[in-house]
Design brief:
Glutathione S-transferase Yfyf (Class Pi), Chain A, domain 2, four-stranded mixed β-sheet, globular, 4 strands, 9 helices, 8% strand, alpha+beta
């Protein structure tokens, strides 16, 4: 497998976590978003949307991190990223969707570029924008964690799931935008627990070959 990734991309980060949790390795091929390499003809021939991550599996290119992670779950079911039971799986998927559907998409790079270029937003305004939507999502996420009497060290139960793979990159992004994580102690505790696992540590942005060192 070949993983087309950018070290600071939250969607790439969540896929790296999922691959590591599954015990799978892929050749890392950096796509430098800072110089718009993703918009070039070579990468768009692989992914017409021009977004990372993309996963080349024996010549078949998979795109969109939720679809790729679902493919991983279907083709490499052990260890699972979803718990047994339809209701439990729905809860984990909902936690992941708070991040994947409601927080990350309106804070990603192309949105922030548009805010700067079309609306003249300075860095303080961009950071305030990001903090607004991160805070809204994290408030709900924290409340859901607090409502779960069976919760262990992770988002659901005692082992990491799909929800943790989505949450940890968003916490990383929150810190990058200067968001004070003190308001969400349960989220912070989950993030700390995940950080102790090699699968998460190896997936971290600064651990990637294209990260500044």
């Amino acid at each position: 497998m070949k993983l087309y990734s950018f070290f600071r991309s939250g969607t790439s980060h969540r896929l790296r976590i999922a691959l590591n949790l599954k015990g799978l390795s892929a050749d890392y091929i950096p796509v430098d978003l800072r110089v718009d390499e993703n918009s070039g003809a070579a990468f768009k021939a692989l992914n017409p949307q021009g977004l990372v991550p993309a996963l080349d599996v024996d010549g078949q290119v998979l795109i969109q991190s939720p679809a790729i992670i679902e493919w991983l779950e279907e083709t490499h079911p052990t260890p699972p990223l979803l718990p047994p039971g339809a209701a439990a799986r729905a809860r984990v998927r909902a936690l992941a969707a708070i991040i994947g559907c409601d927080v990350h998409p309106i804070n990603n790079r192309r949105i922030l570029i548009y805010l700067r270029q079309q609306f003249g937003a300075d860095e303080a305004a961009v950071n305030a924008w990001c903090a607004t939507w991160i805070s809204a999502g994290f408030d709900a996420f924290e409340a859901l964690l607090a409502q779960d009497p069976q919760r262990g060290d992770f988002c659901f139960g005692g082992v990491p799931t799909l929800a943790d793979a989505y949450l940890v990159p968003q916490v990383e992004s929150a810190r990058r935008f200067g968001v004070d994580m003190g308001a969400w102690p349960l989220i912070s505790a989950v993030d700390a627990a995940c950080a102790q696992l090699p699968a998460f540590a190896r997936a971290a942005p600064l651990a990637q070959p294209d990260a500044p060192h």
